[in-house]
Design brief:
The complex is a heterodimer. By secondary structure, chain A is mainly beta. Chain A is 7% helix and 57% strand. The longest helix of chain A is centred in the N-terminal third of the chain and has 9 residues. By secondary structure, chain B is mainly alpha-helical. Chain B has 2 domains: 35 residues; 98 residues. In chain B, helix 5 runs parallel beside helix 8 and helix 7 packs antiparallel against helix 8. The longest helix of chain B is centred in the middle third of the chain and has 37 residues. The chains are: A mainly beta, B mainly alpha. At the A-B interface, loops of A face helix 7 and helix 8 of B.
């Protein structure tokens, strides 16, 4: 019976519906609202799709009770998924489903699993999932673009081919996409991000970060950089910002270039080494009478390896370590222009 | 039940006039008893004029045969394609030295690479894997192999090049981790 109804959306026992099983299409929503006595709370979620003439299936709003720190796992095969933290002890989902995909969900107050499943044949899935702000959320996406906002606890987003965008004040963020881009703009104690081909764009105040890429470019532009470890194969690396006095930067790449930019007052213990590549750049001092440093002139060449070890910054200032290792990728340092320093 | 609804009331036999005429015939020309009912049942079970049902049945049989032939052709082609792809996949052990072939880290990478190719060609397992993600992983393998080749060339030029030796170990470990992560994520979606 259910197969014959495809691509209809079938929802079994929705909590806020009066019918025990409701199967709807966009064209039949109005009739269902009239003839099956759906509660008014359902209609706002489905009405926009109807009024816009969307032909794919429609899922009405659905909700569950959830503890503030519940573990929630969300699946999204395609389309777009927005996960938003809110101040209620409940989880809700609403949006539209592509033809061929169906909605599922269930669990307890401490653990809920929900989302879409199936293979989209027409239309585009667009889901909004609201969860308690302190919930621990895991998202798995096939090709769906995922955006997460307003969560304060742990966030784990994995997407095969979609872009991932995480923002807010979170405890820890783990994000991975094989071919999609990652945009992580957070204030967080820990960030783990990994891409294969996609671009990695990290910003905010991050105490500890481990960033990995194969070919994707990686840009870290942080107001305050804690302990950062970066690994790429041939992806370019760009790091801009102030390093915390207890922080450190460790970059290891093979074919990728490395660009580092620090504020003029930044102190650091540089340990740079490039094989079959050059080290260059100029650090300019504006306060404390520091002279400009031409790093290319200071680098030491031995065989096919160029290296530079030097402490920079005002005397007596903390000097967090900056270690860079490349093969074939050049290294360049510069001073951040005052107007472009993060946090300004 | 007949395929056609009766257009006239059920006929139990000839009307009185015809019955009288029949009775007037010689005894040997009288139809046998119940012949009208038998004739009606026979007519009712006959296909309509032109026998479209027979033609439809023949057409269906022909379509079914063609579909079966096409399906078997698709299966055969896919099996052949998979075989050719597997044969075209480079042997990860081909360029390795004897020492490398005994290195457990190298063997772990070889096993992981074979797992990746087997999973990617397993239609049941990889049916939902996005093509962009597969292409990205294959591209990553190529990128890593390119850097591996560069490091191996550097080591061949100077066998005492410690950094090249470390680079090879690091690249192999990253490639293994990449494949492991990618397969875990793709299996979880």
């Amino acid at each position: 019976m259910l197969k014959r109804l495809a691509p209809w959306v079938c929802i079994k026992r929705p909590m806020i519906l009066t019918a025990s099983v409701i199967c709807v299409t966009a064209s039949s929503v109005r009739a269902l609202v009239v003839t099956h006595g759906m509660t008014p709370a359902v209609t706002p979620a489905v009405t926009p799709a109807v009024t816009q003439g969307v032909t794919q299936g429609v899922t009405p709003r659905r909700g569950w009770r959830a503890s503030p720190t519940a573990a929630i796992k969300i699946h999204a095969p395609s389309g777009m998924l927005l996960v938003q933290g809110w101040g209620r002890d409940s989880v809700s989902i609403e949006g539209t489903l592509a033809s061929g995909e169906s909605f599922f969900g269930g669990g307890t107050v401490n653990g809920i699993k929900l989302g879409a499943e199936g293979t989209a044949t027409a239309g585009r899935t667009s889901l909004l999932v609201r969860v308690p702000a302190a919930a621990r959320v895991v998202v798995r996406s096939g090709a769906a673009d995922v955006r997460v906002i307003g969560l304060t606890s742990t966030i784990d987003v994995g997407s095969a081919a979609g872009d991932v965008d995480v923002s807010g004040d979170a405890d820890a963020v783990t994000a991975e996409s094989i071919s999609g881009d990652l945009h992580i703009h957070v204030n967080a104690s820990a960030v783990r991000a990994r891409t294969t081909r996609g671009r990695l764009d990290i910003a905010g105040r991050i105490l500890e970060a481990q960033l990995t890429s194969v070919s994707g470019a990686l840009v870290l532009s942080a107001q305050l950089i804690g302990t950062v470890r970066v690994e790429t194969i041939d992806g370019a690396v760009e790091i801009r910002g102030a390093i915390a006095r207890t922080g450190s930067i460790d970059v290891q790449t093979f074919g990728g270039t490395v660009d580092l930019a620090f504020p003029a007052e930044q102190g650091a213990a540089l340990d740079l080494r490039a094989t079959d590549a050059v080290i260059g750049g100029v650090l300019t001092g504006r306060r404390g009478g520091r002279e400009s440093l031409d790093l290319r002139a200071l680098a030491v060449k031995s065989g096919n390896t160029t290296s530079l070890s030097r402490v920079i910054g005002p005397s007596g200032a903390p000097a967090p370590s900056v270690t860079v290792r490349t093969m074939r990728g050049r290294i360049r340092l510069r001073t951040l222009p005052r107007e472009r320093q993060p946090g300004d | 039940m007949s395929r056609h609804a009766p257009h006239t009331p059920h006929d139990n036999g000839p009307d009185p006039q015809l019955r009288a005429a029949l009775d007037a015939l010689p005894e040997e020309r009288t139809p046998p008893a119940d012949s009208w009912s038998h004739l009606q049942r026979t007519i009712a079970t006959m296909p309509p004029a032109g026998a479209p049902q027979v033609r439809t049945r023949r057409t269906r049989v022909r379509w079914a045969a063609q579909a079966a032939l096409a399906a078997s052709l698709v299966v055969t082609l896919s099996v052949l394609a998979n075989r050719s792809i597997r044969q075209a996949s480079p042997d990860p052990l081909a360029d390795l030295s004897d020492d490398e072939r005994r290195d457990p880290r190298v063997l772990a990478l070889v096993a992981q690479t074979r797992n990746w190719h087997a999973a990617a060609h397993d239609s049941a397992r990889s049916a939902r894997w996005p093509m962009a993600a597969r292409a990205a992983v294959d591209g990553a393998i190529e990128s890593t192999n390119r850097e591996l080749g560069s490091a191996r060339a550097a080591l061949a030029r100077d066998p005492s090049d410690v950094s090249a030796r470390e680079a090879i170990d690091t690249l192999r470990e990253r490639q293994r981790a990449l494949l492991q992560h990618a397969m875990a994520l793709l299996d979880d979606i």
